[in-house]
Amino acid sequence: MPVHWFERLFRHRGVMWLLFIVNFLGTIYGYIWYGNQLEFTADNYPSWLLPFVPDSPTASLFFTLALLLLLYPPKGIKGTLVRELIEALAVVTSVKYGIWAVSIIFAGGYQGDTVSWRDWMLVVSHTGMAVEALIYARFFSFRRMLPMALFWAFANDMVDYSQGVFPWLPDVLEDNVNEVQYFTIGLTFLSTAAAWLSGGRSRRAERLDRQPIRQR
């Protein structure tokens, strides 16, 4: 598949709007999915920990905003910096938690947990999170904000596992929290490296960015 055709496909406004809607709805569903844990956290932990609970929906939210800012690029240095920060957070966290969720589901299944149709739905959706983030990383300009994204992701890990607000695990993995913690921290650095390698606009993408994207 020619590279320019691939780039024009995923930069087509119709495709981006479709992905925006899918990610927006998925983000809402994700926060609903975390409803019980958010309620439990609110009742048993300090309120400042609440933003650290729903990891995957927040990653999806970052990517949804990144798509919107790709559709309507902000002007000015402040707008550009905000856009780059959201793009960096979108790629790093989407890759990280996309891989994390799939790995945890399969790890639970390997240890005897039942993998239901909902789990398979999560496998498909979270795989899509990671793939779309890597695809759109080539159209984003975020490398100078990667240290900030790395800091956020690492801080989130520290809060999750030091305060006990990490995503609820399958019962069969309750005795593997330390291993899950190390795996999660490793994914933080792996996803940041993947963002660095995949990110940065190509010259062709820069030219496309200056051209109006036709809607067919």
From TrEMBL:
Organism this protein belongs to: Paenibacillus jilunlii
Membrane in keyword set: yes
Keywords: Membrane, Transmembrane, Transmembrane helix
InterPro entries for this protein: DUF1405 (IPR009845)
UniProt key word Membrane: yes
Name the UniProt record assigns to this protein: Uncharacterized membrane protein YpjA
Transmembrane region(s): 15-34, 54-73, 85-108, 120-137
